[in-house]
Amino acid sequence: AIPLKYGAQYTGKRSDEAMNKWRSNRFGQFIHWGLYAIPGGVWNGKTYNYAAEFLKSSAHIPTPVWDSLMYQFNPVKFDAKAWAKMAKKMGVKYMTITTKHHEGFCLWPSEYTNFTVANSPYKKDIIKQLVEAYNAEGIDVNFYYSVLDWHHPDWRYDIKTPEDSVAMSRYLTFAYNQLKELATNYPTVKAFWFDGTWDNSVKLNGKWTYEVEKMLKEVRPGVIVNSRLRADDYGKRHKDSNGQLMGDYESGYERRLPDPVTDLAVTKWDWEACMTIPENQWGYHKDWSISHVKSPLELLEMLVHTTSMGGNFLLNFGPSGEGTFRPQELNIANTIGAWMSKYGNVIWDCDYAGMKKEDWGYYTKKKGSNQLNMVVFNVPVSGLLRVNTPKGMILEKAAFLDSKGVSLKVEEIAANQYLIHIPVKQYTSPQVIQVDYREGNAKGSYEKAKT
Ligand SMILES: COc1ccc([C@H]2[C@H](O)[C@H](O)[C@H](C)N2C)cc1
């Protein structure tokens, strides 16, 4: 192994209480909110189709012009309690809020810059209100923080001169202080979601990323940081020069999911996928007709897919400049919430089942139980759900979670090969089948025929 000072600090999955809770949460709400929500992807009457939180660069807006949006930030309809109630109904167990996105505007009254809500017409601390409202609903709150900062004069994309180096180290001290401020002033924060760390200026500062992780865990023991914060001694990101995952979970799946057959390696570590409702809008965009908008059932399948591979699913909402969600977002929250109110137990505290992926859908398994869940999205025209079990696992019975008393026919067709018979009819939402099994070696009927 290559000797590293700023590489992975440990290997394997953390098994402490804080990480177990993070893992059991499984379903989270991402919220992207900032000055970009005011123009919403439209500038001087022109609509820019690229991600709305990047409008400053898409429309080549000078920093002073963009920054003056601060004087318009006044979300009069913002109601943290209402947002938290919507999230609770949706069935999320955690929420990740952009404390500061690439634009550099802070949703909390940071003492290290004037570019915050405190100097906007709104004035009040948005982070404090969200933390209190979501925690009151039993939802953990995590902080997204962008290291990349378009506003701060000392930010550098690369270090080409001694001046760059001096400026960037001033910037990194600023960012370090802001992060310590967040971890200190909002003591219930459970995790930090770092972004904006792909530039050379950060990759050359692996030591700083190591020190941030160390500081956050000293200030807030148990706190969790994503792999995206970290660069090692040689600027390697996410995984260090020895291929070891840095931070506490892998945060590389952005608007895409690992393949349930070819990417099974992800089941060896903790990971999270983050997802937008439109094709590619994290911040509020005025016009959602410019791309596909994912339906509740599309997103629900992604949540189940993620849980089936032992990952967390972070679904993004982009509130408007006034602090409201759009009808599509409310519909998604209600529809997924309705399903979660009935079947959330096949998501929360569930993990990869170690079963072979089948066409009809996904398996999940409740931690520490012998309870295997089958979430069926694609009912075969045959009505026969194939189940291949690992050696030593014998299926005993199966029933729809909705009608536990009615056992489904489980046909053993060969060693560790079964067919579960279900009615062929129009299903309008994913069906959940619970399977009980026991340890033992298969003695299928096929064997009797031989002897
Ligand atoms: C250049 O490609 C990028 C850069 C940053 C992003 C940001 C988005 O604004 C959002 O915050 C997402 C989580 N992040 C990766 C997305 C694409």
Q: What distance separates the N and C termini?
A: 55 Å
Individual helix count: 11
Percentage of residues assigned to helices? 25-40%
Uncertain residue ranges: 447-451
Beta-strand share of residues = 15-25%
Mean pLDDT: 96
Going by helix content, strand content and strand pairing, the class is alpha/beta
Rg estimate, integer Å: 24 Å
**Topology, number of strands:** 19
* Biggest sheet features: 8 strands, parallel
Order of helices and strands: HEEEHHHEHEHEHHEEEHEHEEEEEEEEEH
**Bound chemical compounds:** the ligand COc1ccc([C@H]2[C@H](O)[C@H](O)[C@H](C)N2C)cc1
CA-based shape = globular
User: In order across it, which strands form the biggest sheet?
Assistant: 7-6-5-4-1-10-9-8
Question: What can you see in these coordinates?
Answer:
The protein is α/β, with parallel strands linked by helices and 451 residues long. The protein has helices at residues 17-25, 55-58, 63-67, 80-90, 126-136, 162-185, 200-203, 206-219, 296-308, 327-343, 445-450, and strands at 27-31, 42-43, 46-47, 94-100, 140-146, 191-195, 224-225, 250-254, 271-275, 311-317, 350-351, 361-366, 371-376, 384-388, 393-400, 407-408, 410-414, 417-421, 431-439. The strands form 4 sheets. Strands 7-6-5-4-1-10-9-8 form an 8-stranded parallel sheet, sandwiched between helices. The protein has a 6-stranded antiparallel sheet with strand order 11-12-13-19-15-16. The relative contact order is 0.13. It binds the ligand COc1ccc([C@H]2[C@H](O)[C@H](O)[C@H](C)N2C)cc1. The site of ligand 16Z has 6 residues, from loops. The ligand COc1ccc([C@H]2[C@H](O)[C@H](O)[C@H](C)N2C)cc1 binds next to loops.
